[in-house]
Amino acid sequence: MLKYLGRLGAAVAAAWLALAPASIVAAGPAWEQWQTVKGIFDVDGPRSDGSLLVAGSAALYLVDAGGNQMPFARGPGGYREDPGTEAYVAVSHGGKVGAAGCSFTPDETFILRLHVPMGITRVTASGEDSGSFANLTGATTLNGLAFDTTGSFDHRLLVSGPNGTKTVIFALDCAGAVTVVTRSAPQLEGGLAVAPSTFGRFAGDLIAADELSGKIYAIDPAGKATQIAKPALPTGGDIGVESVGFVPAGFLTRGGFAYYADRATANNPHPGSDSILRLSSADLGAAGVQEGDMLVATEGGAALLAVRCTNDCSVIPVVTTPTKAHGEGHIAFSVNAPSPSTTPRPAVAHAGGPLVAPGVVDFIGTWGVPIGVAAVLLALVAGLGVRALRRRAR
Protein backbone atom coordinates (compact mmCIF):
# COMPACT_ATOMS: atom_id res chain seq x y z
CA MET A 1 0.00 0.00 0.00
CA LEU A 2 2.78 2.42 0.85
CA LYS A 3 4.21 2.20 -2.66
CA TYR A 4 0.79 3.15 -4.08
CA LEU A 5 0.52 6.07 -1.67
CA GLY A 6 4.03 7.21 -2.52
CA ARG A 7 3.43 7.21 -6.24
CA LEU A 8 0.07 8.91 -6.03
CA GLY A 9 1.33 11.40 -3.47
CA ALA A 10 4.03 12.46 -5.94
CA ALA A 11 1.36 12.79 -8.62
CA VAL A 12 -0.74 14.99 -6.33
CA ALA A 13 2.24 17.23 -5.59
CA ALA A 14 3.15 17.54 -9.28
CA ALA A 15 -0.43 18.38 -10.23
CA TRP A 16 -0.67 20.97 -7.48
CA LEU A 17 2.56 22.71 -8.49
CA ALA A 18 1.57 22.69 -12.16
CA LEU A 19 -1.85 24.20 -11.56
CA ALA A 20 -1.19 26.60 -8.67
CA PRO A 21 -0.81 30.33 -9.53
CA ALA A 22 2.72 31.38 -10.53
CA SER A 23 4.50 34.75 -10.59
CA ILE A 24 6.02 35.85 -13.92
CA VAL A 25 9.01 38.19 -13.90
CA ALA A 26 9.34 40.03 -17.22
CA ALA A 27 12.42 41.76 -18.54
CA GLY A 28 12.42 45.57 -18.52
CA PRO A 29 11.50 47.53 -21.67
CA ALA A 30 14.09 48.32 -24.33
CA TRP A 31 14.20 50.81 -27.20
CA GLU A 32 13.34 49.44 -30.64
CA GLN A 33 15.49 50.65 -33.57
CA TRP A 34 12.43 51.45 -35.64
CA GLN A 35 13.45 53.34 -38.81
CA THR A 36 16.79 54.44 -40.27
CA VAL A 37 17.11 58.15 -41.10
CA LYS A 38 20.44 59.44 -42.42
CA GLY A 39 22.03 62.04 -40.14
CA ILE A 40 19.12 62.06 -37.64
CA PHE A 41 19.50 64.19 -34.51
CA ASP A 42 15.94 65.24 -33.60
CA VAL A 43 12.31 64.20 -33.93
CA ASP A 44 9.19 66.23 -33.10
CA GLY A 45 5.47 66.28 -33.72
CA PRO A 46 3.20 64.73 -34.61
CA ARG A 47 1.83 67.03 -37.28
CA SER A 48 -1.91 67.31 -37.99
CA ASP A 49 -1.75 64.29 -40.31
CA GLY A 50 -0.06 62.17 -37.64
CA SER A 51 3.39 62.19 -39.26
CA LEU A 52 6.58 62.91 -37.34
CA LEU A 53 8.98 65.68 -38.37
CA VAL A 54 12.53 64.30 -38.37
CA ALA A 55 15.70 66.40 -38.67
CA GLY A 56 18.80 65.02 -40.36
CA SER A 57 21.97 66.80 -41.42
CA ALA A 58 20.71 69.92 -43.29
CA ALA A 59 17.60 67.94 -44.25
CA LEU A 60 14.06 67.32 -43.03
CA TYR A 61 11.87 64.23 -43.40
CA LEU A 62 8.29 63.19 -42.65
CA VAL A 63 7.71 59.70 -41.24
CA ASP A 64 4.17 58.35 -40.93
CA ALA A 65 2.82 55.86 -38.39
CA GLY A 66 3.63 52.95 -40.68
CA GLY A 67 7.29 53.98 -40.94
CA ASN A 68 7.00 55.35 -44.49
CA GLN A 69 9.58 58.09 -44.97
CA MET A 70 9.67 60.98 -47.42
CA PRO A 71 11.97 63.99 -47.84
CA PHE A 72 10.41 67.27 -46.73
CA ALA A 73 11.14 70.89 -47.74
CA ARG A 74 13.59 69.82 -50.46
CA GLY A 75 12.33 72.05 -53.28
CA PRO A 76 13.92 75.31 -54.52
CA GLY A 77 12.80 77.24 -51.42
CA GLY A 78 13.34 74.39 -48.98
CA TYR A 79 15.64 73.85 -46.01
CA ARG A 80 19.40 73.16 -46.36
CA GLU A 81 21.08 74.88 -43.42
CA ASP A 82 23.76 73.95 -40.87
CA PRO A 83 24.96 70.51 -42.03
CA GLY A 84 26.47 68.37 -39.26
CA THR A 85 25.17 70.54 -36.40
CA GLU A 86 22.48 70.00 -33.75
CA ALA A 87 19.94 72.42 -35.24
CA TYR A 88 16.99 71.20 -33.17
CA VAL A 89 13.41 71.60 -34.41
CA ALA A 90 9.95 72.33 -33.01
CA VAL A 91 6.61 71.77 -34.77
CA SER A 92 3.84 74.33 -34.20
CA HIS A 93 0.44 73.18 -32.95
CA GLY A 94 -1.16 76.56 -33.62
CA GLY A 95 -1.04 78.30 -30.24
CA LYS A 96 -2.55 81.79 -29.97
CA VAL A 97 -0.33 84.52 -28.49
CA GLY A 98 -2.74 86.86 -26.76
CA ALA A 99 -0.32 89.75 -26.31
CA ALA A 100 0.56 89.74 -30.02
CA GLY A 101 -2.99 89.22 -31.31
CA CYS A 102 -1.94 86.41 -33.67
CA SER A 103 -1.44 82.66 -33.74
CA PHE A 104 1.30 80.31 -34.89
CA THR A 105 0.33 78.38 -38.01
CA PRO A 106 -0.20 74.67 -37.32
CA ASP A 107 2.47 72.31 -38.74
CA GLU A 108 5.04 75.02 -39.44
CA THR A 109 8.54 73.94 -38.38
CA PHE A 110 10.92 76.20 -36.44
CA ILE A 111 14.63 75.35 -36.46
CA LEU A 112 17.68 76.65 -34.60
CA ARG A 113 19.86 78.66 -37.00
CA LEU A 114 23.43 78.15 -35.82
CA HIS A 115 25.26 80.27 -38.38
CA VAL A 116 25.49 84.07 -38.46
CA PRO A 117 23.07 85.72 -37.95
CA MET A 118 21.97 83.25 -35.28
CA GLY A 119 18.28 82.83 -34.70
CA ILE A 120 15.28 80.79 -35.83
CA THR A 121 14.46 79.58 -39.34
CA ARG A 122 10.83 78.88 -40.22
CA VAL A 123 9.66 76.26 -42.74
CA THR A 124 6.06 76.48 -43.94
CA ALA A 125 3.62 73.64 -43.29
CA SER A 126 3.81 72.60 -46.95
CA GLY A 127 7.61 72.74 -46.96
CA GLU A 128 7.66 74.98 -50.01
CA ASP A 129 9.34 77.93 -48.37
CA SER A 130 12.02 78.45 -45.74
CA GLY A 131 13.35 81.69 -44.31
CA SER A 132 14.44 83.63 -41.25
CA PHE A 133 11.80 84.03 -38.54
CA ALA A 134 13.85 85.92 -35.94
CA ASN A 135 17.44 86.79 -35.07
CA LEU A 136 18.66 86.21 -31.51
CA THR A 137 21.55 88.03 -29.85
CA GLY A 138 23.12 87.76 -26.40
CA ALA A 139 24.03 84.06 -26.51
CA THR A 140 27.16 82.42 -27.92
CA THR A 141 25.09 79.72 -29.64
CA LEU A 142 21.59 78.16 -29.41
CA ASN A 143 20.98 74.72 -27.92
CA GLY A 144 17.27 74.09 -27.38
CA LEU A 145 13.71 75.12 -28.25
CA ALA A 146 10.14 74.13 -27.41
CA PHE A 147 6.62 75.52 -27.77
CA ASP A 148 4.62 76.53 -24.72
CA THR A 149 1.46 74.45 -25.16
CA THR A 150 -0.02 75.40 -21.76
CA GLY A 151 -0.35 79.18 -22.10
CA SER A 152 1.86 80.02 -19.11
CA PHE A 153 4.33 81.71 -21.50
CA ASP A 154 1.44 82.97 -23.69
CA HIS A 155 1.95 80.07 -26.15
CA ARG A 156 5.26 81.49 -27.35
CA LEU A 157 8.27 79.63 -28.75
CA LEU A 158 10.96 79.27 -26.06
CA VAL A 159 14.64 79.11 -27.09
CA SER A 160 17.75 78.54 -24.96
CA GLY A 161 21.33 79.60 -25.55
CA PRO A 162 24.47 79.67 -23.37
CA ASN A 163 26.30 82.82 -22.34
CA GLY A 164 29.30 81.96 -20.21
CA THR A 165 28.20 79.78 -17.30
CA LYS A 166 24.57 80.90 -17.61
CA THR A 167 21.77 80.30 -20.09
CA VAL A 168 19.58 82.88 -21.80
CA ILE A 169 15.91 81.96 -22.34
CA PHE A 170 14.22 83.79 -25.22
CA ALA A 171 10.46 83.87 -25.89
CA LEU A 172 9.29 84.49 -29.49
CA ASP A 173 5.72 85.40 -30.41
CA CYS A 174 3.91 84.56 -33.66
CA ALA A 175 5.09 87.80 -35.29
CA GLY A 176 8.75 87.06 -34.55
CA ALA A 177 9.06 89.60 -31.71
CA VAL A 178 11.63 88.52 -29.11
CA THR A 179 11.44 88.85 -25.31
CA VAL A 180 14.12 87.67 -22.88
CA VAL A 181 12.66 85.58 -20.05
CA THR A 182 15.97 85.39 -18.17
CA ARG A 183 19.69 85.78 -18.79
CA SER A 184 20.74 83.84 -15.69
CA ALA A 185 19.26 80.35 -15.98
CA PRO A 186 21.62 77.46 -15.10
CA GLN A 187 23.53 75.62 -17.82
CA LEU A 188 21.02 73.78 -20.02
CA GLU A 189 20.98 71.88 -23.29
CA GLY A 190 18.95 69.53 -25.45
CA GLY A 191 15.29 68.58 -25.78
CA LEU A 192 13.23 71.09 -23.78
CA ALA A 193 9.53 70.82 -22.86
CA VAL A 194 6.89 72.82 -21.00
CA ALA A 195 5.22 70.89 -18.17
CA PRO A 196 1.47 70.18 -18.43
CA SER A 197 -1.10 71.01 -15.76
CA THR A 198 -0.66 67.53 -14.23
CA PHE A 199 2.95 68.17 -13.16
CA GLY A 200 2.29 69.43 -9.66
CA ARG A 201 3.78 72.72 -8.57
CA PHE A 202 5.96 72.88 -11.70
CA ALA A 203 3.00 72.86 -14.10
CA GLY A 204 3.50 75.39 -16.90
CA ASP A 205 7.24 75.75 -16.29
CA LEU A 206 9.92 75.21 -18.92
CA ILE A 207 11.77 71.99 -18.05
CA ALA A 208 15.38 71.48 -19.13
CA ALA A 209 18.41 69.44 -18.11
CA ASP A 210 22.12 70.03 -17.62
CA GLU A 211 23.99 66.99 -18.96
CA LEU A 212 27.20 67.99 -17.16
CA SER A 213 25.68 67.86 -13.65
CA GLY A 214 22.64 65.66 -14.33
CA LYS A 215 20.33 68.22 -12.70
CA ILE A 216 16.86 68.91 -14.10
CA TYR A 217 15.45 72.42 -13.72
CA ALA A 218 12.05 74.10 -13.93
CA ILE A 219 12.07 77.71 -15.16
CA ASP A 220 8.88 79.66 -14.47
CA PRO A 221 7.51 82.51 -16.65
CA ALA A 222 9.26 85.06 -14.38
CA GLY A 223 12.62 83.40 -15.13
CA LYS A 224 13.14 81.77 -11.71
CA ALA A 225 14.93 78.40 -11.95
CA THR A 226 14.30 75.57 -9.47
CA GLN A 227 16.06 72.22 -9.37
CA ILE A 228 13.40 69.52 -9.41
CA ALA A 229 15.47 66.34 -9.65
CA LYS A 230 18.95 64.88 -10.01
CA PRO A 231 18.40 61.30 -11.17
CA ALA A 232 21.00 58.60 -10.61
CA LEU A 233 22.15 58.68 -14.24
CA PRO A 234 25.59 59.13 -15.83
CA THR A 235 26.74 62.75 -16.12
CA GLY A 236 29.10 64.63 -18.43
CA GLY A 237 29.27 65.86 -22.02
CA ASP A 238 28.04 63.34 -24.65
CA ILE A 239 26.80 61.12 -21.78
CA GLY A 240 24.43 62.86 -19.37
CA VAL A 241 20.75 63.81 -19.40
CA GLU A 242 19.89 65.15 -22.84
CA SER A 243 16.13 65.20 -23.29
CA VAL A 244 12.79 65.50 -21.54
CA GLY A 245 9.23 64.97 -22.74
CA PHE A 246 5.79 64.63 -21.13
CA VAL A 247 3.53 61.60 -21.61
CA PRO A 248 0.38 63.04 -23.24
CA ALA A 249 -3.25 62.39 -22.33
CA GLY A 250 -4.65 59.28 -24.01
CA PHE A 251 -1.23 57.71 -24.51
CA LEU A 252 -1.82 54.77 -22.18
CA THR A 253 -5.60 54.47 -22.57
CA ARG A 254 -5.60 54.59 -26.38
CA GLY A 255 -2.05 53.40 -27.10
CA GLY A 256 0.88 54.95 -28.92
CA PHE A 257 4.66 55.25 -29.02
CA ALA A 258 7.45 57.42 -27.62
CA TYR A 259 10.26 58.34 -30.06
CA TYR A 260 13.88 59.43 -29.63
CA ALA A 261 16.63 60.19 -32.18
CA ASP A 262 19.71 57.93 -32.13
CA ARG A 263 22.44 59.84 -33.94
CA ALA A 264 25.37 58.01 -35.54
CA THR A 265 28.48 59.48 -33.90
CA ALA A 266 31.86 58.19 -35.03
CA ASN A 267 34.74 57.60 -32.59
CA ASN A 268 32.39 57.71 -29.59
CA PRO A 269 31.76 55.13 -26.84
CA HIS A 270 28.10 55.41 -27.88
CA PRO A 271 28.36 55.37 -31.69
CA GLY A 272 24.61 55.40 -32.36
CA SER A 273 22.75 53.98 -35.33
CA ASP A 274 21.17 56.85 -37.35
CA SER A 275 17.70 55.60 -36.47
CA ILE A 276 14.46 56.53 -34.76
CA LEU A 277 14.14 54.68 -31.47
CA ARG A 278 10.69 53.95 -30.12
CA LEU A 279 8.94 52.45 -27.08
CA SER A 280 5.31 51.34 -26.97
CA SER A 281 2.76 52.67 -24.51
CA ALA A 282 2.31 49.08 -23.28
CA ASP A 283 6.00 48.85 -22.35
CA LEU A 284 5.97 52.21 -20.60
CA GLY A 285 2.76 51.37 -18.74
CA ALA A 286 4.21 48.04 -17.60
CA ALA A 287 7.20 49.93 -16.17
CA GLY A 288 4.87 52.05 -14.03
CA VAL A 289 4.74 55.18 -16.21
CA GLN A 290 1.53 57.25 -16.08
CA GLU A 291 0.08 59.92 -18.35
CA GLY A 292 1.45 63.31 -17.32
CA ASP A 293 4.80 61.88 -16.17
CA MET A 294 8.00 63.35 -17.54
CA LEU A 295 10.36 61.03 -19.43
CA VAL A 296 14.07 61.79 -19.09
CA ALA A 297 16.65 60.28 -21.47
CA THR A 298 20.44 60.35 -21.49
CA GLU A 299 22.59 61.12 -24.50
CA GLY A 300 25.02 58.26 -23.90
CA GLY A 301 23.14 54.96 -24.06
CA ALA A 302 19.59 56.43 -24.16
CA ALA A 303 18.86 55.32 -20.59
CA LEU A 304 15.31 56.35 -19.69
CA LEU A 305 13.43 57.11 -16.50
CA ALA A 306 10.19 58.82 -15.54
CA VAL A 307 9.74 61.69 -13.08
CA ARG A 308 6.38 62.28 -11.37
CA CYS A 309 5.81 65.55 -9.49
CA THR A 310 3.16 66.78 -7.07
CA ASN A 311 4.64 68.76 -4.18
CA ASP A 312 7.68 66.50 -4.36
CA CYS A 313 9.11 64.54 -7.29
CA SER A 314 9.73 60.80 -7.50
CA VAL A 315 11.82 58.88 -10.04
CA ILE A 316 10.82 55.63 -11.81
CA PRO A 317 13.47 53.60 -13.74
CA VAL A 318 12.29 52.58 -17.22
CA VAL A 319 15.11 51.61 -19.64
CA THR A 320 18.14 50.59 -17.60
CA THR A 321 19.97 48.16 -19.92
CA PRO A 322 23.15 49.80 -21.33
CA THR A 323 23.18 50.31 -25.11
CA LYS A 324 25.37 51.91 -27.77
CA ALA A 325 22.69 54.48 -28.65
CA HIS A 326 23.58 58.18 -28.88
CA GLY A 327 20.39 60.06 -28.03
CA GLU A 328 19.73 63.62 -29.21
CA GLY A 329 16.95 66.21 -29.29
CA HIS A 330 13.35 65.86 -28.16
CA ILE A 331 11.29 62.92 -26.93
CA ALA A 332 8.19 62.87 -29.16
CA PHE A 333 4.92 60.95 -28.80
CA SER A 334 2.17 59.60 -31.01
CA VAL A 335 -1.29 58.71 -29.66
CA ASN A 336 -3.68 56.38 -31.45
CA ALA A 337 -6.98 57.82 -32.65
CA PRO A 338 -10.00 57.10 -30.41
CA SER A 339 -11.88 53.88 -31.20
CA PRO A 340 -15.34 54.29 -32.79
CA SER A 341 -17.92 54.68 -30.06
CA THR A 342 -20.16 51.73 -29.37
CA THR A 343 -23.52 51.62 -27.61
CA PRO A 344 -23.05 49.99 -24.21
CA ARG A 345 -25.35 47.16 -23.21
CA PRO A 346 -27.76 48.03 -20.39
CA ALA A 347 -26.61 46.75 -17.02
CA VAL A 348 -28.78 44.19 -15.23
CA ALA A 349 -29.37 45.18 -11.61
CA HIS A 350 -29.50 42.57 -8.85
CA ALA A 351 -31.32 43.52 -5.66
CA GLY A 352 -29.32 42.90 -2.54
CA GLY A 353 -25.90 42.96 -4.22
CA PRO A 354 -24.05 40.20 -6.15
CA LEU A 355 -25.24 36.62 -5.79
CA VAL A 356 -21.69 35.48 -5.01
CA ALA A 357 -19.24 37.60 -3.06
CA PRO A 358 -16.28 38.86 -5.16
CA GLY A 359 -13.83 37.26 -2.72
CA VAL A 360 -15.42 33.87 -3.28
CA VAL A 361 -15.25 34.36 -7.05
CA ASP A 362 -11.57 35.29 -6.84
CA PHE A 363 -10.83 32.29 -4.61
CA ILE A 364 -12.59 29.88 -6.95
CA GLY A 365 -10.93 31.40 -10.03
CA THR A 366 -7.49 31.11 -8.47
CA TRP A 367 -7.64 27.85 -6.50
CA GLY A 368 -10.78 26.03 -7.67
CA VAL A 369 -9.13 23.92 -10.36
CA PRO A 370 -6.09 22.88 -8.27
CA ILE A 371 -8.30 21.92 -5.33
CA GLY A 372 -10.61 19.91 -7.60
CA VAL A 373 -7.68 18.01 -9.12
CA ALA A 374 -6.23 17.32 -5.69
CA ALA A 375 -9.58 16.00 -4.42
CA VAL A 376 -9.88 13.59 -7.36
CA LEU A 377 -6.35 12.31 -6.84
CA LEU A 378 -6.87 11.84 -3.09
CA ALA A 379 -10.04 9.86 -3.83
CA LEU A 380 -7.99 7.60 -6.09
CA VAL A 381 -5.44 7.15 -3.32
CA ALA A 382 -8.18 6.12 -0.88
CA GLY A 383 -9.68 3.69 -3.37
CA LEU A 384 -6.37 2.02 -4.04
CA GLY A 385 -5.68 1.81 -0.31
CA VAL A 386 -8.96 0.02 0.28
CA ARG A 387 -8.17 -2.45 -2.53
CA ALA A 388 -4.74 -3.17 -1.02
CA LEU A 389 -6.24 -3.88 2.42
CA ARG A 390 -8.80 -6.27 0.93
CA ARG A 391 -6.05 -8.22 -0.85
CA ARG A 392 -4.10 -8.61 2.40
CA ALA A 393 -7.24 -9.79 4.25
CA ARG A 394 -7.83 -12.66 1.80
Features:
alpha+beta; Neuraminidase; 2 domains; 4-stranded antiparallel sheet; 16% helix; disordered N terminus
Question: Quick gist of this model?
Answer:
This protein has helices at residues 2-19, 251-254, 281-286, 358-393, and strands at 32-36, 42-44, 52-56, 59-63, 69-72, 89-91, 96-97, 102-103, 109-113, 119-123, 130-135, 144-147, 157-163, 166-172, 178-185, 189-194, 206-209, 216-219, 225-229, 241-246, 256-262, 275-280, 294-298, 304-309, 313-319, 327-335. By secondary structure, the chain is an alpha+beta fold.
Question: How does this model look, in words?
Answer:
The chain is α+β, with helices and mostly antiparallel strands. The chain has two domains: 57 residues; 298 residues, TolB, C-terminal domain (Neuraminidase), CATH 2.120.10. It contains four helices and 26 strands. It has a four-stranded antiparallel sheet. Strands 2-3-4-5 form a four-stranded antiparallel sheet, with no helix packed on it. A four-stranded antiparallel sheet has the order 6-9-10-11, with no helix packed on it. Strand 7 and strand 8 form a beta hairpin. Helix 1 packs antiparallel against helix 4. The protein starts with a helix and ends with a helix. The N terminus is likely disordered.
